[in-house]
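Please fill in the sequence for the structure shown.

STRUCTURE ENCODING:
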């Protein structure tokens, strides 16, 4: 199933199958984003940094049967590669050489996602194991700059799957604490997002 069909299926399932009472919730999280760039094997002064701080806001609806649907917006921060003249790096099996000093390549990614969720009660009304699967529409922007040479920006976008696992502790009827691991596919690369956050139900 391609990602556009998956989005349609999520909407149809949420409106027809889960016709039970439930509750809305909103929340926010922060954590570590591991951004897979496909770059490896740097030499000389070249430096690759694929980790950054990310954040996410989300809103969803959870039915009494513990299924739900969730929307989210996430910013995964920035991955960067820097180097100087004659430094090299490997990208997907091909070796490239920097031909200028003070070169910086920065990659930023944001996404808007829609997913189906299921919460498995471990201790009723207290602890839940959460699972989710869905599709996300992403935007990526690459900025390339060098000493005395200005900068240029390139952008890309697409729609791909994402999925995750987590644990929720319901502090009170309204407030919960959530930790989770999610993987977002970006074409041939992935972003792994490990986070902790708070959820408010109403």
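FILLED IN BY: designer on duty
SEQUENCE:
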């Amino acid at each position: 199933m391609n990602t556009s069909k998956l989005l349609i299926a999520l909407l149809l399932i949420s409106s027809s199958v889960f016709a039970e009472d439930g509750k809305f919730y909103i929340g926010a999280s922060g954590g570590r984003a591991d951004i897979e760039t496909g770059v490896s094997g740097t030499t000389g002064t070249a430096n690759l940094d694929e980790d950054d701080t990310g954040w996410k806001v989300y809103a969803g609806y959870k039915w009494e049967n513990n299924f739900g649907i969730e929307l989210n917006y996430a910013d995964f921060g920035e991955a960067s590669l820097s180097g100087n003249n004659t430094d090299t790096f490997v990208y997907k099996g091909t070796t490239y050489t920097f031909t200028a000093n003070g070169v910086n390549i920065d990659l930023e990614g944001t996404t808007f996602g829609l997913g189906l969720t299921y919460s498995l009660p471990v201790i009723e009304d207290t602890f839940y194991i959460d699972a989710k699967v869905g599709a996300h529409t992403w935007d990526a922007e690459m900025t390339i700059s060098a000493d005395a040479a200005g900068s240029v920006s390139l952008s890309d976008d697409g729609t791909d799957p994402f999925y995750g696992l987590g644990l929720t502790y319901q502090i009170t009827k309204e407030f919960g604490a959530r930790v989770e691991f999610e993987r977002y596919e970006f074409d041939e690369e992935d972003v792994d997002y490990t986070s902790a956050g708070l959820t408010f139900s109403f």
